[in-house]
Design a protein that fits this description.
The complex is a heterodimer of chains A (114) and B (115). Chain A has 114 residues and is mainly beta. The relative contact order of chain A is 0.34. Helix content of chain A is 0%, strand content 53%. Chain B contains no helices and eleven strands. The radius of gyration of chain B is 13 Å and the shape is globular. Helix content of chain B is 0%, strand content 48%. With 115 residues, chain B is mostly beta strands. Classes of the chains: A mainly beta (114), B mainly beta (115). The interface between A and B is medium-sized, with 25 and 26 residues.
Chain lengths: 114, 115
């Protein structure tokens, strides 16, 4: 079975500071990892994904994520946070050897204060 | 392109009533999905479809039925609504299941309240 954990319900950061939103996963096969963002009253928007290759993945809006196989983590990062980055962030995993079902984490609310 | 659209945006039902949620996509995607979102639980897969005329159960299928009569549409039905089905429902679609083309694109959601 595959699973995802987002250990922080909320992350607070000041505008201009770097941000990290944590995600750890568990799969039996090769992990395909995703980050999505949800703004209030909106659907989820795709940010980035890891399939294979370079452990640092760059995505939309200046976000990037680092895949760490030994720690089974896929943390989302941004060097300089914006107030407009405030939203709900979801990590998701798919087992590359087991169909197309995504498993989502519970979400982390990012609050960026001016 | 409209992407993925959902109808209706909001709905209030009484226990025991039935309704159908409509999802439409104009991206010629083969795969379509229905999720429900509950606070602190992320998104959970209800049912999905890998092509026109096919459906399959996801993680939480009980109390729901689906149909995919046309490639661009995926319907989610509640035959006898229960308060436990109060949730926000999201539809998504993807081109295929391959690693390059499996990114799912989401609709804006339907907020359903069952009294």
């Amino acid at each position: 079975a595959q699973s995802v954990a987002q250990p922080e319900d909320q992350v607070n950061v000041a505008e201009g500071n770097p941000l990290t939103v944590k995600c750890t996963y568990s799969v039996s096969g090769n992990p395909y990892l995703f980050w999505y963002v949800q703004y209030p009253n909106r659907g989820l928007q795709f940010l980035l994904k890891y399939i294979t290759g370079d452990n640092l993945v760059k995505g939309s809006y200046g976000f990037e994520a680092e895949f760490n196989k030994s720690q089974t983590s896929f943390h989302l990062k941004k060097p300089s946070a914006l107030v407009s980055d405030s939203a709900l962030y979801f990590c998701a995993v798919r087992d590359g050897n087991a169909g197309n079902m995504l498993t989502f984490g519970g979400g982390t609310r990012l609050m960026v204060k001016p | 392109n409209a992407g993925v659209t959902q109808t209706p945006k909001f709905r209030v039902l009484k226990t025991g009533q039935s309704m159908t949620l409509l999802c439409a996509q104009d991206m010629n995607h083969e795969y379509m999905y229905w999720y429900r979102q509950d606070p602190g639980m992320g998104l959970r897969l209800i049912h999905y479809s890998v092509g026109e005329g096919t459906t399959a159960k996801g993680e939480v299928p009980d109390g729901y039925n689906v149909s995919r009569l046309k490639k661009q549409n995926f319907l989610l039905g509640l035959e006898s609504a229960a308060p436990s089905q109060t949730s926000v429902y999201f539809c998504a679609s993807s081109y295929s299941a391959g690693p390059i083309t499996d990114t799912q694109y989401f609709g804006p959601g339907t907020r359903l309240t069952v009294l």
